[in-house]
Design brief:
The complex is a heterodimer of chains A (172) and B (273).
Chain A lengths: L1 H19 L3 H14 L2 E4 L2 E4 L3 E11 L2 E13 L3 E11 L10 E10 L5 E8 L2 E8 L4 E9 L10 E3 L3 E7 L1
Antiparallel strand pairs in A: 1-3, 2-3, 3-4, 4-5, 5-6, 6-7, 7-8, 8-9, 9-11, 10-11
Chain B lengths: L6 H28 L40 E2 L4 E8 L4 E7 L2 E6 L3 E2 L2 E6 L3 E6 L2 E6 L3 E2 L5 E2 L3 H4 L9 E3 L2 E4 L1 H9 L1 H7 E8 L2 E10 L4 H4 L7 E5 L2 E2 L2 H9 L6 E8 L2 E9 L1
Parallel strand pairs in B: 1-10, 12-18
Antiparallel strand pairs in B: 2-3, 3-4, 5-6, 6-7, 7-8, 8-9, 11-12, 13-14, 14-15, 15-16, 15-17, 17-18
The chains are: A alpha+beta (172), B alpha+beta (273).
């Protein structure tokens, strides 16, 4: 019995330590390398290891070499059963002002073990508020905009439904 | 001697420490062997060139070098044009022509304001426009025969402000106001043309034209459904080039869109007024 306790305890401890001791900044650089292959680059950012996650400050997001947005802060927290990604103060590049919302004040994605097959999304910005989900099995993203403000620039990406109001959906 | 810590606890502590050290070592090895120690930064900046000199040195089969024709039936003055240089080999003809402060580099077969470069001698080049031929020598313009016709003022240099796309001698002239109307109202773009990313071997290689609204200004530019836009002013077209083009459109004087149409690459040239 003592041996079983030790093995089980050792296993969970190993998992915890694996994450706590993970070189998260280097793992982030590895992710950046992967993203670069997809022509997505985050530059000029400051990356900090917070033991249980990562904090990325003052990043500039570029796609295909074009600056898309500047991001004030991204916080990624990993607690095994409850993981969050929070993005604060995204300012879209002025060249995209006619194609995208000007500002996203806050955006969050939460993965909880209580809902293992979906990622819950929420956010707020110049477009109003949004809430949605990523259905991992169906590979589907659905975002509802219950309160809309400036959505003229993104209307072409949205659909309208009598019950749901404005919403966006796509499969990946 | 009395033990400070029992052997059971000691073994547990050693067990935990072993796990900690083992995990540290695993990550250290992974870091050193597989993980990068610096991030990626944005390096390139694809600004669209304001003035575009096109010298297509590749694909020489397309270059149409014609032997010089000293005698021609008719000539039109090329006032305002100066021939600055000639490169004339067996396979390639490239000339530099200036008009006012603008300098253009042309290769055999290409047009400048409707004047098509057809041949060259040692110190002169022959252009053709509306079945009339012109000789432009290295220093000045020489008339070949007496049937000289003065070029209309609008063609000779002075450009009257236009509000619509006008085709003149093979070159389309686009009013700047028309272009800026698209940049101010992005929805107008999407109403007139449908574009989607085009990839070659998994890499972005331009934009595919999915539809062009009939009668729209974009249709008048000569874009067709199925075209693949591959370059703007010789800059390979990607999101960055497109956005820089979009932002700097008011500074452009001329524009060359390279499109792949039915597998053949061709240039659509425009002058912006």
């Amino acid at each position: 019995m003592q041996m079983v306790k030790r093995i089980v305890g050792g296993f969970f401890l190993s998992l915890l330590l694996l994450w706590l001791f993970a070189p998260k900044v280097e793992l982030y650089y590895f992710l950046e390398k992967f993203l670069k292959e997809k022509h997505i680059v985050i530059s000029n950012e400051t990356v900090t290891d917070t033991w249980y996650g990562l904090k990325i400050k003052n990043g500039e997001l570029s796609v295909d070499g074009a600056k898309i947005a500047s991001i004030n802060e991204v916080t990624f927290n990993f607690f095994f059963f409850y993981n969050t990604l929070k993005v604060d103060a995204v300012k879209m590049d002025k060249s995209l002002s006619n194609m995208a919302p000007k500002e996203i004040n806050q955006l969050s994605a939460i993965y909880s073990i209580l809902k293992p097959l979906q990622i819950t999304l929420s956010g707020e910005g110049s477009f109003g508020t949004m809430e949605g989900q990523v259905a991992l099995l169906d590979r589907k993203v659905e975002i509802l905009l219950p309160v809309t403000k400036e959505i003229k620039s993104i209307k072409k990406f949205l659909k309208k439904d009598k019950e749901k109001g404005w919403f966006y959906e796509t499969n990946y | 001697m009395k033990q400070i810590i029992s052997s059971k606890h000691l073994s547990t502590i050693i067990f935990l420490l072993t796990i900690v050290v083992a995990i540290k070592i695993i990550w250290l090895v992974i870091s050193i062997l597989f993980l990068p120690n610096s991030g990626e930064e944005l390096q390139q900046s694809n600004e669209v060139k304001k003035l575009y000199y096109r010298v297509r040195l590749s694909n020489p089969s397309k270059v149409n070098v014609v032997a010089p024709k000293p005698k021609q039936s008719s000539v039109v003055s090329m006032k305002g044009y100066t021939l600055l240089g000639i490169y004339n080999s067996d396979k390639k003809l490239v000339v530099t022509v200036a008009k006012g402060s603008k300098t253009s580099i042309l290769e055999g077969g290409e047009k400048l304001n409707g004047f098509q470069l057809i041949s060259a001698g040692k110190d002169f080049v022959i252009f053709k426009k509306n079945n009339q031929e012109f000789k432009l020598s290295l220093e000045n313009v020489k008339h070949i025969n007496k049937h000289t016709k003065a070029i209309p003022k609008a063609q000779a240099g002075k450009v009257t402000p236009a509000t619509k796309i006008v085709e003149e001698g093979g070159t389309k002239h686009i009013p700047k106001s028309l272009l800026t109307s698209y940049t101010k109202d992005i929805d107008k773009v999407w109403k007139d043309v449908g574009l989607s990313n085009y990839k070659k071997n998994g890499k972005p290689a331009g934009f595919k034209v999915n539809f062009v609204k009939k009668g729209s200004d974009i249709a008048k530019l000569g874009l067709q459904k199925g075209d693949i836009l591959t370059a703007i002013n010789a800059e390979p077209l990607n999101l960055s080039t497109a956005m820089n083009f979009f932002n700097g459109i008011s500074d452009l004087d001329n524009l060359t869109l390279t499109v792949e149409r039915n597998g053949i690459s061709e240039d659509l040239e425009y002058e912006i007024q």
